[in-house]
Write the structure tokens for this entry.
Amino acid sequence: MSLAEGGIMPDEKPMNAGGPFRREAQAVDVMTGEGSAGPRTSSNAAGERLRNYDRLRLGLASLIQSALRLISEKDNPEAYRQCRDLLTSLAEDRFTLAVVGQFNRGKSSLMNAVLGMDRLPVGIVPLTSVITKVSYGNPERALIEFRGSSLKDEIPLDRLADFVTEAGNPGNQKQIEAAEVQLPSEFLRRGLFFVDTPGVGSSISANTFTTERFLPQADAVIFVTSFDSPLGQSELEFFRKVREHVRKVFLVVNKSDLVKPQEREHVLNFIRQRLEEEAGLREPRLFALSALAGLEAKLSASERRLSESGLPALEQSLVEFLTREKTGEVLLRICERASLLLEDVRLKTQTQTGTDEPPLPKTPTEHSAMVNAGAAKPNRAQSSALGEIIGQLIKLREELQGEDRNAAAPRLEIKPVPEAELMEAARKACLVCTRVADSMMKFMAQFQYQVFSSEAERTALARHGGLCPLHTWQYAEIASPQGISSSYPRVLMEVSSRLSRLARSETPVSLSARTNALTTGPDKCSACQAQAEAENSVLDEITGQLTPPGAKEPSSLPVLCLSHLSAVLKRLPNDGLARRLLEFEAVLFERLAENMQRYALKHDALRRHLNSADERIAYHHGLSQLVGDKRLQAPWHVEKLI
């Protein structure tokens, strides 16, 4: 959550860099068609639209997943297949946005600016005839696809220019089909698939052919021209070809920083007039911007410079179109298909459920018996469950059809977390758990050696009745049978002696309680005491780092499980810092939940290869965030010790 240190003017308000949906800046809408500005909407609201779309998509998927588990693949294979097909559509959720235009118009620079990362190679010479795809991923990497091969080679991102530029790969001698760059961008994570096409109109004729061949695969296009060479005849002809294949085109006039402010409107009027007269557009909307200035503004965390660059208007329009198209068309269509499909299954179920139907099973055993006997046909319970799902689908459809369907659900304002930092946090375990678990591993290694080699240690162990149950079995995991057999006989003999004394006791009413007391608890377990001391030490260290004397709030926050979050909050004197830590954890828990949902969806849709590394490990990290490291869990509450 750190802010960039340099490049901020004294009168500027800092913002989070790193992408269009992790800021709180106002997006100024640039309109040249009607000469007016559009509504001022924060880019944080744009991010909320994307998050709301994801909420609707995953919610719809959850309902269909529930239905899939109610439908028998054996008895109703067609309905089962259709359900899975709907899940596949949701799992493969992707919106392809191609960036096209003549070479040297700043297409790659524009993509870098939108993503808030200087990753794609740029230059004044034409690139090779290689499509560069940009998708979501962490860590950052590049994958190279070769012609005639289904295999992909992974290369360091800083070597991308060796494969996609004319300087590194003249005439595409390396026979590259495409390059895919994976970056930690919130924009990309929400389903956008950016495509950087070769510049048309250059001396490399293959570039134009490659770009034109790709156009039918695009859901929308950003067409880039520039102020220093605005919409020449060849560009206009190519624009007509773009419109033949793609319904939605965003018209960007780049390099606004190269002309004086009073000259910009003249250039924009010229472009607009050509589009109206020669391309048949009515009042075309142009996005006048400087991609270079926009990228520099994001990297320097300058809100004012970003607004002046004109980039936020394009970003806002992209998000509005993306969420409107996907919510209004894709989700609504899938929701309606699911409702019709499940209603048909339910009607068939009701038809098959008659007076001769066997009674509903009352216990799991009865249900298993019915299944084994071949009597597990659709029944009233299944019909009722399907009816409930259909009812929820109807409510979801109404939400999708509503006038405010693109607005995010009401939500408390939470300070944004940069995507790269959030992705890193989702991969980390609780800092306290990790440190304490390492400490306890060292303790156990030393303990098992000491009780094996020291008579005094064995005597002390016997006096305490051994370790608690949790740490006894952790000790057994690293000790050898010889070590245990040498160290624990005295413990067992001590317990034997105490049981004998209890047997001869004259107070039989307390035998149960006194026998139970022979099991070692945390107050007598030396490992529990060592764990508590280690936890206190780490918690004090973290608190000190969060609240250094005379310093500002920390630039980054630790990842903590719930129990250790509570322990840290007890120690924090700063209420504002405590709330910031809670906000960070709230965003992290939300991210882990989304990753788990994404994993389950792709698993049920038989699209497991689409799961990212973060999604594959989300189940484990989600549970660890909730209850802490399993190596440290005991049947008593940690706060009693710390």
Observations:
- Residues 1-42, 371-378, 403-412, 636-642 have pLDDT under 50 and may be disordered.
- The chain has 25 helices and eleven strands.
